[in-house]
Structure formats: C-alpha cells, structure tokens
Amino acid sequence: MDARQQGRRRHASAALRTGVLVAGAALAASTTAAAAPASQVLKGTVGPGFTITLTLSGKKVTKLKAGTRYRFVISDRAPIHDFHLIGPGLNRVLTTVDFTGTRSVFLTLKKGAYRYFCDPHASFMKGAFKAT
Questions:
Q1: What Rg, from alpha-carbon coordinates, does the chain have?
Q2: Gap between the Cα atoms of 120 and 112, Å rounded
C-alpha cells in the first residue's frame, strides 16, 4: 500500500469515527427527550347517574401543582351531562351534552381555584380544587 492509499484509509477511518460519535450523541439526546416525565393523568367521570368526579391515582383531587402539565381523561357516561372546567385563564367544556365516551385533553394549570361541573345540573353536580 503506498502512502497515498494509507492517507485515504486514515481519513476514511477518522470520518467513520466522527460519524459514529455524532450518531451516538444524537441517539443519547433523543433518548433523554423520550425519558422526560410524562404528564400526570387526572381521571374525570360524569354520569351515568347524577355524579361528577375528578381523581388522581384513585384519590379525589383537592390540590394540584401550578405550572405542571396534566392530562385530563374524561369519561362521559350519559348524554344528559357535560364536563365543564373553569379556572384562571381557563373556561373549557371538556365533554358536551349529548356526547358519551372518553375525551383526553392536556392542560397546564395556573395558580388559583378551579371548578368543574355539569352545566345542566350545576347546582349539585360540581367539584373544585386548587392549583398552588
């Protein structure tokens, strides 16, 4: 092998090592992003009777962390109810009257008081929690 061929081989080898390092760094970065903590899941139910609930890990929600991203999974079991959530900068109907099924919404809560209720039966189908 002459000097020119040896030089090309060294250059190709160095390029291969650089490519492997870059690929490894990209893989590490994507793994770190994928390993970021998932949103906490809040489970809400409305119906089939005249009940409305919001739980986290099976416990009634009374206080949550402001600035945290939550996934609200609402199971609407009756076509005569809705699930309405109101709080600082938020006024959203997560499930509508006539809808039955499950809806999922991601929300980042601000500091303050929140109320959830069924619009047609708001006087007795309601709950509340604080984000601190």
A1: 26
A2: 25
User: What's phi and psi for 73, nearest 5 deg?
Assistant: -110, 110
Angle of CA points 95, 107, 109, to nearest 5°: 120
- Strands of the 90-95 sheet, one edge to the other: 63-64, 126-131, 112-117, 83-87, 90-95
The pTM for the full model equals 0.72
Amino acid at 97: V
Per-residue pLDDT in tens (0 to 9) along the chain, 132 residues:
666 666 556 655 555 455 444 444 444 444 444 444 567 999 999 999 999 999 999 999 999 999 999 999 999 999 999 999 999 999 999 999 999 999 999 999 999 999 999 999 999 999 999 999
Per residue, the 3-state secondary structure of 26-78, as one string, reads: HHHHHHHHHCCCCCEEEEEEECCCCCEEEEECCEECCEECCCCEEEEEEEECC
Which residue in this structure is represented by tokens 């709080």?
A: 87
3-state secondary structure of 15: helix
